[in-house]
Amino acid sequence: MNIKKIGAAAACILFLSACGSTGSPEQQSVTESASEESMTEEVLSILSETAVENTEPPVICESFSDENFLAEKRGTVILRYSEDEAASDKGALRIFNRNNSWDGVQYNADKFRGNELEAEGSFRSSNPSVRISIQYTVNDNTSYNTIASVNTTESSYSKASGKYVVPKNAENIIVYVESDRLEDIYIDDFSVKVCGDYTYYPEAVATEFVDTSDYPSLKEEYKDYFRIGTATSPNLLDKEPYAKLIKAQYNSMTMGNSFKPDSILDHNKTVRDIDKYMYSPAVKFDAVKTELDFARDNGLTVRGHTLLWHNQTPDWLFYKNYDIGGELADRETMLARMENYIKNVMEWTEENYPGLVRAWDVVNEAADDGGGMRKSLWYQTVGEDYIEQAFMFARKYAPEGTKLFYNDYNSYQTRKQNDIITFLRPVVEAGNIDGMGMQSHINVDISISQYMTALQKYYDELGLEINVTELDVCRGKSDNWQQEQGDYYKEFMSEILKLRKNGVPITSVTLWGISDTDSWLSSDYPLIFNDDLSRKPAFDGMIEAVNNQE
Ligand code: 9MR
Questions:
Q1: Distance, CA of 459 to CA of 482 (rounded, Å)
Q2: Which terminus of the chain, N or C, has less C-beta within 10 A?
Q3: What is the rounded (10 degree) CA torsion for 75, 80, 82, 85?
Q4: How many Å apart are CA 217 and CA 237, to the nearest integer?
Q5: Is the CB of 352 under 6 A from ligand 1?
């Protein structure tokens, strides 16, 4: 070991012992004091205030120079100290036996609540990239965001580093290391520190929701044009301020997760009687009922999302005898499973909630980012015509009047659009599709005119009805980002209204979530309400667009 390496290791150890690995000195003294029976409540409360103001900033600092590390397992992994694999000093940590993208190592980061943190680490892996991510729960809604991502190779270490502001209403805060593919990861020199001044929040600060009663109503303002929708989850509907806002603002909803195949398919039941379910996997609908009830009881229609997708669809569906250790099932078996799945979902829905689902996303995200069709397990098992087949079955079982959609992200980009048009054309010719779903996960730098030209082209070339299905607009970097984002929302909606006026059949615009906290992109603040449901310029922009049409 050379001198530089000894220095790095020693610095890390010193750092750790100074800041403490299991809690700051102040915090420990409060906890210990609290156990003294003679302590009055008054003294305790003074002490705990002191702890809040004067607590040392937390730090996580690991050089993996011996077997005593703080990293905890995340998922099924095995962690092994590896003396010869260091990025610097002695040793690194090997993470292996990974079965899910999120399997890796994790650290509790509750003490970073309400502060900006900086995380960094060195990684070596045959996975193409490794991420440092953060998970936390706000208002019972757990989000997963990336702090830093780095391209990795098997032969040498690459450093990832990034900053993240942890909300002060967050609970169960966990910083972790993951990667999309499942190969081993070597990690070294990992740290999480506070940026700037530190404030200690011993507990999540409860969100105080504002009164939303006097907001203008999006669904009312847009009622002569198209439906306005939102993505939901059952735990948001449980909260009165959310439920009230949804009822007031929206007349369409899309279940964010609970209508997807991984919620509907019943693995236990299917494999208990494989012969019975060989061509028609068992389904269950418990997860989706809360949201369907809410929609029915409050006069919202539903966009059913989604029947066929490469994501959130369990792999076992695609295997012979549902055994992922064996071979993929043959085309005929998969066509039968596809037909029965579509039939069972559509029939159950219509029987239990007649007329509620206005549109189905029959196929989601079939275009590959690199061009052509995505080589999903549907593609691999059924073949190139799986989209045509899916729409044919959907048409066969869809109730009269239910609209059938194809749905995708970045569908305004030229190459992707051309691919989509190519593979949808036969479906259009067969008369089995009604609409194009533009997901629209965009940001303030995306050209609105390019987007609108693409939207117009779907109509011109395929004659399809259009839904904007998952709108969110990530903020820009300017200090004035709220206003900039508000202006973007306003222009976006103005142009949508213009296209509609010029004959493009746009029949709904759905936002992908309610407030920034519950967005899947929460760190980019992409939605129209703040965490406390106060309205953002983005909301006002949408209202102004409809009230100031040329
Ligand atoms: O909003 C959904 C999020 O809660 C899930 O974690 C995620 C997992 O795939 O799916 C999100 O919704 C996706 C939608 O179904 C399809 N388009 C992209 C959306 C964002 O990932």
A1: 32
A2: C
A3: -10
A4: 18
A5: no
365 labelled catalytic: yes
What is the overall mean pLDDT for the chain?
Answer: 90
459: its two tokens: 């109509």
The b/e string for 453-480 (b: 16+ C-beta within 10 A; e otherwise) is ebbebbbebbebbbbbbbbbbbbeeeee
* Six token digits for residue 93: 């940590």
- Nearest Cα neighbor of 211 from 543, 533, 537 is 533
- Please check whether residue 275 is in contact with residue 329, taking contact to mean a CB–CB distance below 8 angstroms: no
Which tokens go with 339?
A: 């037909």
Instruction: Tell me the per-residue pLDDT of 353-384, one tens digit each, with 9 for 90 and over.
Output: 999 999 999 999 999 999 999 999 999 999 99
Residue 154 designated active-site = no
From the CB of residue 189, how many other CB atoms can be counted at a distance below 10 Å? Answer: 23
Q: Could you tell me if 36 and 44 are in contact, meaning their C-beta atoms sit under 8 angstroms apart?
A: no
Instruction: Say if residue 271's pLDDT is above 60.
Output: yes
CATH topology of domain 434-550: TIM Barrel (3.20.20)
5-200 adopts what CATH topology? Answer: Jelly Rolls (2.60.120)
Sequence-distant (≥ 6) Cβ neighbours of residue 276 within 8 angstroms = none
User: Which pair of tokens denotes residue 48?
Assistant: 């705990």
Catalytic residue among 291, 339, 365, 465: 365
Q: Which of 291, 339, 465, 470 is catalytic?
A: 470
Q: Domain boundaries in the chain?
A: 5-200, 251-433, 434-550
Give tens-digit pLDDT for 340-357.
Answer: 999 999 999 999 999 999
251-433 and 434-550 agree in CATH topology: yes
Classify domain 251-433 at the CATH class level.
Answer: alpha beta
